[in-house]
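Thread: quick sanity check before group meeting

JM: Hey all, I'm pulling together slides for Thursday and realized we never actually wrote out the predicted structure for the chain we discussed last week. Dropping the sequence here so it's in one place. If anyone has concerns about the input, flag it before I start.
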Amino acid sequence: MKNFYQKGITLWEILLAIAIVGILAVLVLPGFSKIRKIQILKSTTEDIVSVIGQARSQTLASLNSSAYGVHFETNRVILFTGTSFSSGATSNQITNLISPATISSISLSDSGADLYFNRLSGLPSATGTIILSLPSVSLKTITISASGSVSAN
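JM (edit): ok, ran it. Output follows.
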């Protein structure tokens, strides 16, 4: 008589479990990749908004009796002291963007890549938009208003 109550698993059961795990991985991993890219874009947007806010708050506080500004590049933003950007200044604070996110468009009213804040009023030297992009993910737009407020969508 054959014992039907033997303990253990068969080779077929192992192969079936591996196949099910493989199918689930193929279905789920692309979704995680897109979520990761969305999070990178969101974090990069927050970093840029934070640097702009830091420039404005340091200007309004008259830190070191100076104005502060932000210089925008494709893969980084630089907080600078004064009303004009100098790439060699030792006081520059560089914030690198999280790869592969990049600034794809800089549309400021002075048609440059720099923005600084007025020491007395906190008003920006330029208004406009900064557009962030990441391959296969929607764009993020950072808007700088005439009052100096910054918003992102």
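AS: nice. Residues 11-60 form the longest helix (50 residues). The first strand starts at residue 68 and ends at 72.
JM: adding both to the slides.
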